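Memo subject: From amino acid sequence to discrete backbone structure tokens
Action wanted: Derive the backbone structure tokens from the amino acid sequence.
How to read it: Take the token row as a discrete description of the fold.
Attached in line: The record itself begins immediately under this heading.
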Amino acid sequence: MLVIVAPGQGAQSPGFLNPWLELDGVADRLGQWSDVAGLDLAHYGTEASAEEIKDTAVAQPLLVAAGLVTVDQLLPGPDQVSKLVGALAGHSVGEITAAAIAGVLSPLDALTFVSERGRAMAAAAAVTETGMIAVLGGDPELVAAKLDEHGLTPANNNGGGQIVAAGTLDQLEALRADPPAGSKLIALKVAGAFHTVHMAPGVQRLAELAPSLTVADPSVAYVSNKDGEVVQSGAEVLSRLVAQVSNPVRWDLCMETLQQLGATCVIELAPAGTLTALVKRNIKGVATLALKTPADLDKARALVAEHSEVGA
């Protein structure tokens, strides 16, 4: 079974869209979405610095646009998705990409939603200086206890002993000075404590926007960050997307579900690499491909033919 996944914030890097803009139609699509987002997405994906694209209000629409551009090159047309893909999942903001690919939201509505999400989360992050640190390794119970001791939230559980701690900069500094035994800490390239109570103001802004969006039920299995469950109602997907900004990401549970569904191949959309690395560590025997540039398309298409329901 073929699975398509979309990465979350922090996966972006300067210039990652350059090779994609060489393909026919990509510049036009990015221009249309830029009008909706109120951002020059082509500029941010090709010329902007790492610091510029770290900005939450920029990074989130840029990531969704990149994912949609990538999947359009791999699987042109929504009928291809419903015929060939067995399941979709995204990490954090990547869930919006997955929702658009599944037909829950149109691309324009997805860009409208993610642009408001990015602005709302950036505004929430500006209230208090916050951030996120990946905690790698260590005994899970001891890690949880140490985070609780320092008032931090386990904002992401990425499986394989990788927990992302989120909170104020003072709380994170205290964790650096007193890390869990046997763990390694890595600061993340994000601008706030996402998926925590610090993001609660963003939930209200998205709840106000949601009724204006047109929603359909997903065309393929949509695996939710909230609990790893397959969500069959478009209205429920949107409700979860609204609440998600202040709720933890359970990518570990998403991977468990993908394994239970019978995933044999996972292709990650650009800017790819983060999620396929996690899948490799947590789901044995599954083919993976990080679709980083158009040079990867031929190999990706071969995997689609091999692992899709039609190909099988």
User: Anything to note?
Assistant: DSSP finds 14 helices and eleven strands in the chain. The chain has two domains: 2-125+197-307, 127-187. The first strand starts at residue 2 and ends at 6.
